[in-house]
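Minutes, project check-in
Item: structure for the 547-residue chain
Input as provided by the requester:
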Amino acid sequence: MVTRDQFARAAKIAIENITRHGDTDIFPLPFENYPFFDKKEDLTNLICEYDQNFTDYLVRFPPSNINALTPVSYYGFRWATQLDPIWNAYLLSCVIAISDKIEAARIPSAENVIFSYRIKLDKETGDLFDRDYSWHAFMSASIRKSEEYEYVVACDISEFYPRLGHHRLENALQQIAGDTEYPKRIMDFLSNFSNTRSFGLPIGGPAARILSELTINQIDRLLRGAKIEFTRFADDFHIFAKTREEAYRYTIFLSEKLFENQGLSLQKSKTRIMTSAEFRATSPVATQDIEEHAEDEGKRAADLHARTRLLMSFSLRFDPYSPTADEDYDKLKKEIRQFDILGLLKEELTKSRVHVALSRKIISAVRYLDGKTKDDAVLSILDNCDILYPIFSSALIMIDKIYDDLGAETKMEVSRKIVDIIKSDSHVFRIDVHLCFALRVLQHSHTEEVQQLLRDIFESRTLEIVRRDIILIMALWDDWYWISDLRNHYRQLSAPEKRAFLLASYSLKDEGRHWRESIKKELNPFEKFILSWAGERTNKDKKGLPL
């Protein structure tokens, strides 16, 4: 059983995780993270209220999730979901409440077989997973293990999260936590999320990651029972074999078990049988020396290859909450100087298609550059937005974070370039998620041109998070006449837009106060929580709006 006190402790860890790490790695951080941070105790009580009234609240105040298309390659897309903030916190609380049982059911982490999302809760930092087990650790372990075998099969599961079956997940949950109400509550929530379809998990959040690990644990156990040596990170498998024939047999076995038990299949284009030497040579984290075969172009290419491999294996993790954060930041900046980040960036931008993982790492490193080098890198990124299309969200996130560090002329140029790309109706910003991240950058540029552009976007685009952020930006800029006019259409707004407007209404002074009094009875428990926080924020005379 999970007691109320145990659930409350799980809720506190969930809140800490969300406020420190965000809700997904796909969408912009919702403004609701700020009241989550400021009112943790009240939010814990609210999540417990949702728990005690789960069946009633799921019907009366159902999740208002946001679905959007996100690029996974130059021509490939997937649907991603940003869960309603309060329901996302509730789902994560439920999963954390039984996470010890989930972890206990898996192959023990000490065996170094499964490297994805090993549960190690930290109530102080909100961390859910053991940082010693990661994609990098998975690749390094696979390289070491490959030295004992002649062949390696590298493969991954096709459409893992969208196709994961609810019945298998429910069975697994009942096996490990059937004495609690949480398997049923988790499944009721997922049924609501998937519109009663019997498959699919929301992509990008920790709750879904933990649940997916429990489901695929059956396949891990079947491979182990068949005495097949393998390693796995999420949906990526490495299988080790003595002969090519054995490698084929193991691949067939995995394919059969995935389909028979989970209704899943391997990605045809990504399934490869390699010699161990080839596997090590093509690994992005291999450490062996690069042989230089020529003095000129060959040496340059070999040097570039060595630098890119070194960067891929280099950790850019920085913890701003660390007691030694300033020293850690300075040390990281010094270490990054060993790489020619601007040179590596320009090298990638000469290609017709970038190496996605490497380019994302380069973009992350740009924030640690100094002065003109940083300015030049940012402008080069914007000039090549079509080449960086699959990872342009990462670029915009980085630009927003470092905007205040840019030179005055570069700031103006950044805004001009983004406005021009939007006005040209480029495919880059036909993706709403890209546009959302662009709005976060444009909030720094309060000009009449940008203001009019945002008004036009609000009328022409329908995605709730685009319109939500525009409401907040307009309030940030004290565009009170636009906010006042929007008040007349409050009841036609979506749930995320309504929550944003509750905060934005404080820019209307007395008009906003009278309006808030008139609609209080219409608000659900989460909206009342947001309104309470917004009032406290205003009374403390905090300037601006959190975006």
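Outcome recorded: The chain has 27 helices and six strands.
No further action items on this chain.
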